[in-house]
Specification:
This protein is α+β, with helices and mostly antiparallel strands. It has five helices and five strands. The chain has one domain. The chain has a five-stranded antiparallel sheet, sandwiched between helices. Helix 3 packs across helix 5.
Length: 190
């Protein structure tokens, strides 16, 4: 092959490879604020900083409570027992945490909803997730839409590109946690 017929390398190929690498790194990297904990105790220390203690309440749900929670959350709640973690400052409760683990398609997704005493959402943290598109839902810019809302508020989730199932799963989980708190602690259904 002579020099006149030799193909010169296309400079766009190198740039395209760099762009693809940057996109891949962006999709697989954890955001700086991700809650990176190895167990619930570590998560609770992060969620309730400075409290004197965290009490784990194991609550067996009656049929009436499950029905009331299901109706309020607009979904079937079949759990017979739930755990609610109460952050205490002395003898005063300062917040309630309810953990949830579900399958997002075929991948596990675990998150926690933290509620204030009046039933408003204080925080939502994604703890474990897998899958290429689930990472979008753990950003504060998406999660903050729940903050300050009570059950019965407009829980229509803002869309996240490519994460439709994840958006629905987390939104349903926040609604369920809010309904559990409302029925058990505010309405005190037996």
């Amino acid at each position: 092959m002579n020099k006149l017929n030799a193909k010169k390398p296309n400079p766009l190929y190198g740039g395209l490879a760099l762009i693809m690498l940057a996109v891949w790194i962006g999709m697989t990297a954890l955001p700086a604020h991700a809650l990176n904990v190895s167990n619930k105790e570590d998560a609770l220390q992060h969620l309730f900083p400075g409290v004197s203690k965290v009490i784990k309440k194991k609550i067996w749900l009656s049929t009436a409570q499950r029905k009331a929670i299901s109706k309020l959350a607009q979904q079937n709640v079949s759990e017979e027992r739930i755990n609610v973690y109460v952050g205490m400052q002395g003898s005063t409760p300062v917040g309630y945490a309810i953990f949830d683990s579900v399958k997002n398609r075929s991948w596990p997704l675990s998150f926690v909803t933290v509620l204030n005493q009046d039933g408003t959402v204080k925080d939502v943290e994604v703890l474990q997730y897998e899958g290429a598109r689930v990472w979008n839902i753990q950003y504060d810019s998406w999660l903050k839409q729940f903050f300050g809302k009570k059950i019965g508020a407009d829980y229509i989730p803002n869309a996240v590109t490519g994460a439709t199932v994840s958006v629905r799963v987390v939104t349903a989980g926040v609604k369920k946690a809010s309904a559990i708190y409302q029925i058990l602690f505010l309405d005190k259904v037996k």
